[in-house]
Design a protein that fits this description.
Helices cover 34% and strands 16% of the residues. It is an alpha/beta fold. It has two domains: 173 residues, D-Maltodextrin-Binding Protein, domain 2 (3-Layer(aba) Sandwich), CATH 3.40.190.10; 92 residues, Periplasmic binding protein-like II (D-Maltodextrin-Binding Protein, domain 2, 3-Layer(aba) Sandwich). The strands form five sheets. A five-stranded mixed beta sheet has the order 11-10-12-9-13, sandwiched between helices. Strands 5-1-6 form a three-stranded parallel beta sheet. It has a three-stranded antiparallel beta sheet with strand order 2-3-4. Helix 6 links the parallel strand 10 and strand 11. The chain starts with 15 loop residues before the first helix and ends in an 18-residue tail after the last helix. It comes from Streptomyces coeruleorubidus. Pfam families: SBP_bac_3. This is Glutamate ABC transporter substrate-binding protein.
């Protein structure tokens, strides 16, 4: 079932020049992930198949953020395989973003190594510490938005921690942890733009979203339902969310639609843009894993329980370090609700 509508509301790092620095560093330090999961098929057939699948998922699913397994600290086959890796390969392999400011990004000011930092990265280190006893025992793989699910299904990563929204369509393909963050879709546009939010002011405007993102599927469904102006151009899609900000800066699009949490971080990178209007959906981020990895799902859920209880070095501390500057104090807008689990063994 579509996320219910809601109302919510929400300086600088730089603009185009800073983007050039970041993009250069990304080019130097990028972690390669093959795109073998992409298939070349007739475009219309793919679109029709995706639409049918999405519609069926919406019919059969309600409250996807509750479709997860109860917590457990037990080791199962999946975790044992991770622990049995030898030598330098004894690491947790995690798909992440490397260009989402304050979530998962390479800080150009952190020295020659430009290590990955951010709210999602803190969570990855905590998971690695619990499973392997070493928070640094992680092999990060940079995953484009549209490759998150294929990377999990193909076994290229053990999990994806990448501002990934739990939704009805995705839970058919991957297993999710309990939510670790609450957000909602929001519009980002230049401060000088006449766009006021997710409304009729988007008529005739070019809107950028990431391929395979919840934002794109929401726009497509809303346009079909008449809730988004038919003249809004939603064809501008990119592999990674940061590419939308660059397109906006270059004047190639008029607005970006993405999770409000990410939009706030992008606004912090460029003081010439701002959030327009309120969030218009309620969504939750989760850690994504293979459908068959029940023991890993349960373990991550246990880690999340402990992470939220740890006020000194857990969820709250990470939020304060990375997100409070753009999202304000911790509130019900960002903190996920108490987790609910499937009643299965």
């Amino acid at each position: 079932m579509r996320a219910r509508r809601l109302r919510a509301s929400l300086k600088g790092w730089g603009g185009v020049a800073a983007m050039a620095v970041v993009c250069a560093l990304v080019a130097v330090f990028a972690l390669y992930v093959p795109l073998s999961g992409t298939r070349t098929v007739d475009g219309q057939s793919v679109a029709q198949s995706a639409r049918v699948k999405a519609e069926k998922a919406e019919e059969d699913c309600e409250a996807p953020e509750k479709q997860t397994l109860s917590p457990s600290s037990a080791d199962g086959d999946t975790i044992q395989k991770i622990k049995n890796r030898q030598g330098d390969m004894r690491k947790l392999i995690v798909g992440v973003d490397q260009n989402s400011y304050r979530w998962g990004y390479r800080n150009p000011n952190s020295g020659k190594t430009a290590e990955l930092e951010g709210f999602d990265i803190d969570l990855v280190h905590r998971i690695a510490e619990d499973i392997l006893g070493d928070p640094r025992a992680v092999q990060f793989k940079a995953i484009p938005t549209d490759q998150r699910i294929p990377a999990i299904q193909d076994g290229r990563v053990d999990m994806v921690v990448r501002t990934m929204t739990i939704n009805c369509e995705r839970i058919d393909d991957v297993a999710f942890s309990a939510p670790y963050f609450k957000t909602g879709q929001q519009v980002l546009a230049p401060k000088s733009s006449p766009i006021k939010g997710y409304d009729d002011t988007l008529a005739g405007k070019r809107i950028c979203t990431a391929t395979g993102s919840t934002a794109y599927s929401t726009l497509k469904a809303d346009q079909k339902a008449g809730e988004l102006p038919a003249t809004a151009d939603i064809s501008k899609t990119v592999p990674n969310q940061l590419d939308c900000l660059v397109r906006l800066q270059l004047g190639e699009v008029d607005a970006v639609v993405t999770d409000g949490a990410l939009a706030a971080s992008q606004a912090a990178q460029d003081p010439t843009v701002e959030l327009k209007g309120d969030a218009f959906t309620a969504e939750y981020y989760g850690v994504a894993m293979k459908k068959s990895a029940n023991d890993l799902v349960r373990r991550v859920n246990q880690i999340l329980v402990d992470y939220r209880k740890d006020t000194a070095n857990g969820w709250q501390a990470s939020y304060g370090k990375w997100l409070s500057a753009t999202l304000g104090k911790i509130s019900e807008k960002s903190e996920p609700p108490a987790p609910q689990y499937l009643r299965t063994t």
